[in-house]
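Weekly modeling sync, notes
Attendees: S.R. (lead), two postdocs, one rotation student

Agenda item 3: backlog of single-chain predictions. S.R. asked that every request posted to the team notebook include the full sequence so nobody has to chase files. The rotation student volunteered to paste the first one in as an example of the format we agreed on. Action items at the bottom.

Example entry:
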Amino acid sequence: MIAIIDFGSQYTQLIARRVREAHVFCEVLPYWTTIEELQKYSGIIISGSPKSVKTTDAPKPAEKIFEMGKPVLGLCYGMQLMASMLGGEVEKGKAGEYGRTQTCLDTKNQLFYGLNTESTVWMSHGDHVVKIPGGFEKIASSQTCGIAGIQNTTKNLYGIQFHPEVSHTENGQLIIENFIFKMCKEEPNWKMSAFANDQIEKIKEQVGNDHVIAGVSGGVDSVVTAVLLYKAIGKQLHTFFVDHGLLRQNEREEVESALTNLGLEPMIIDCEESFLSQLEGVTDPEQKRKIIGRLFIEEFENVTKSIPNAKWLAMGTLYPDVIESSGGVSGLADKIKSHHNVGGLPEKMNLKVVEPLRMLFKDEVRHLGRELGVPKHLVDRQPFPGPGMAIRIIGEVTPDRLEILRQADLIVREELFGLADQYFAVLLPVSSVGVQGDERSYSWVCCVRAVTTTDFMTAAFARISHETLDKIASRITGEVKAIGRVVFDITNKPPATIEWE
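Predicted structure, as returned to the notebook:
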């Protein structure tokens, strides 16, 4: 196994993703993991961080991590830690490096084997190494960063200032594979089927004879979670579908049919009135998410009264949710937004939580679903957030605005099917002057959002043809009378998130 030491980088789980893509198992660990706990791993990768090694409270790994004799690769902050802890020097640069950067690589060493001498890499740093520790040599540099890579082959220590885990780095996957295969001597023998079997055994051990309730929305995360649990504990699992009134057009009927066909026998909970009444007058997106998260849990806890042995709540939490909500494994990452199944949970809850997908990306969940035999139409289903359309209506959520958005969203999904990885409509709290039937109109503005992505941690706006966009705008303004203007979101993630709220 490879250990990935998390120092709060937004890219930490991307490192894990790259290692798993090479069919090598890895685990993301907090930075305070002890030397004794690290002994079972064949190699260690130290992540970047929003912190600075120059501060007095800079987080550091176990003191002797660089003396274990195991291969260690430090990325960005990880390289700076390696340098500063072993006698080198780190300073704050006159200018930081952010984004794509031309970098000169010493391709004679094993870490950069197979790469071009001049490569474009992804930089994101303000501090940089200005003095190399004794026994190290420089293996990379850029115009702004004189020391962009270091190595000590005697001690099997390597550091690079850029991020090979980010797709913008040319041949970044090859750098990671060079480290895990050449330095760590790993073999590419881990498969998602192994993860499935491992999680089934962990669920059995964690839950025991207790019963589990699972809210299943019909999305791939909750469905795969339920199927995994069902394979582990069978009839100890009780599934529920919450109709909170924030669903897409025809959502309830489609999901109920799909879950029944999977043998999950969901109980339908009608609670539209309570959700909408609690959301009345609320415009702050964080408050929306937390209200919805709290109401979800309250509904589940009410259901447990009819299931006395229910002690656990199953959640389809993914690692991007954890990173954006609660600071990652180490709690150091910046909080981006609360997810209803992470930051929205109440502090006092009568149910314990089981989250078997917590360390996976969306595409890995789809892969796991295929391994578990989940039908293709469910595995590849459009992602839909737990808070539903409440976070796709900017401003107050009302029955009228929900109905307007449902109509527009259905048109977007019909016209963009197969053209992007995620696509939907957003209703803006803006009215715009227009002309409809030779008369002045003053109607709502709708935004179309469509992105391409693999891991949902980064995303690019989908390059939709003008003809398709024209058809969408014509249909929405023609068929949804309350909307008079349609705009298209061309912002990538980062700097934006996929959802607007």
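Discussion: group reviewed the output briefly. The chain is about 30% helix and 25% strand.
Action items: rotation student to repeat for the remaining queue; S.R. to check formatting next week.
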